[in-house]
Each structure stands twice: as structure tokens, then as C-alpha cells.
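User: Hey, my collaborator sent me this sequence without any context and asked if I could get a structure. I don't really work with proteins. Can you help?
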Amino acid sequence: MCNICEIAKSNQSYKSLIDKMEKEDIARMENTKQIVKNISFPIKCYTSINWPVALYYPFFEARMAYAVPSNYFQNIVLDDERLGNNFSHGSMRSVFFSGKRLMLFSKSVNFKDGKEFFNSFLLLHLEENEYEMKIDGESFSISASVSKQMKNLISGAVETKAIRFNFVHSPVKGRIVTKERVLTSSEFKTIYSKYAGGAQMRSASIDLEGYAITVPHFAPHPYMLQLKEAFGYQSNREFQERVIDYFAKHKN
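Assistant: No problem. I've predicted the 3D structure and written it out in C-alpha cell form, which is a compact way to encode the shape of the chain:
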């Protein structure tokens, strides 16, 4: 077991955060089952493993370059439809390893009538022959295109779902931009002006981590950054720059 995995399984502060997330997700799923009766858009909630379950693993989020709130996570396609990739409280799009399995945990959280619910929820396990990970220096990618039997968490039915994704991580050294530069640079105002919100748009990661990253990348989940010292890092930036170490440890 790699060092980061050992810490995720043994650190009580981290486990408490995961327990809190699990309780919140259970409540969101119950709200979703009620709200789905009164909304017009489709809700997609599926798992290929037993859920609820406490996931004491390190989560690494697949994020877009700049990670603006309206275009935050890298894409997943479920049955030929792209899942929403907006940033919101409680949302995530993370991968982690359980033995030789790759696990994908993606959820999109919405809000209605004072209650949080899921637009989508996807918890997927992939055997080592169902995904591909390529590492080239400081760059790497993880991809899959599979059909899996999954439980519909709204109806309880078992369905065959097609899932595909191609997450990439580009070298981030030299691509991490400070909050001060983002907020004052005309270059970044021009970049953000093409997204909803216009020139006032900024990277959601500025508020979470204190910087923006100008390339697609994997980022440690905010829970891990809260406890960065426990995971062996002195700063958010140091943790971010060494993300590849975790994936290299789990390379087939």
C-alpha cells in the first residue's frame, strides 16, 4: 500500500471528513428520490458497488484548465450524454485506486426548495483490464470505455450503462498562477470573458487553493488539502506539484 493510501485509511481527521460526506450524500440521495418526481430534466444516479460505503481513500479530482465554475471538471460521457461538469458545493469528479481497481466517483449537487439533491451520481469500479493509464514524464492520462452492470439508485433496477472518459494531467510546474495575478491580469480577464459570467468570472480553485492552474490536471480533493501536513506536504502547492507520485505508485 502506498503512503498516501495508508494515511487516508488511518488518519482519524480525514476519516471523519469522509464519514461526514457519506452522511450528507445519503441525505442528498433521499432528497433526490423525492425531487425526481417533480422535475422535468433527467437525473442519473448509478453505482457498480454496494452503496452507501465509507470510502477511506485519497481522492484526486480531474479538473479542466483554469477550472472556472461553469467548466470545472473534465468530461464523462454516460450513454452518449455528457454529464454536467459545473462546480458546486458537494460536487466532485475523483479517481482513486483500491488494489488494482480504478475507482471513479463523480457527483453533481443541485439545490431546490431548501434541499440538496443530485443531478448525477456515479460510483464505478474498473478492473485493471478495463482502463488504461499512461505516464510520460510529468504527464499522464487515465481513460476507459466500458459497459457495466450498475444499480440505479433511484429505481433500484440493475441496468447496463456505457461510460467513457479520458482524463489528462499536464505538468503543472510553471502553470500555477497566484490569486493576485489572476485578479489583476488583463490576460486572465480575457480568458474568463468567454465563460458565463463574463470578465468577472474567475477560477473556483482560487478560493479553494489560492491559485489557478492553466492546464488540465488532477488536484488533491479539498479534504486532503485541509490535512496536507498529515499527508506529508507543507503547502497546497507542493501537494499539487507532486500529484503524479500517487499515480506512479499505482501504475500497472
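In plain terms: The mean pLDDT is 91. You can pass these C-alpha cells on to your collaborator as they are.
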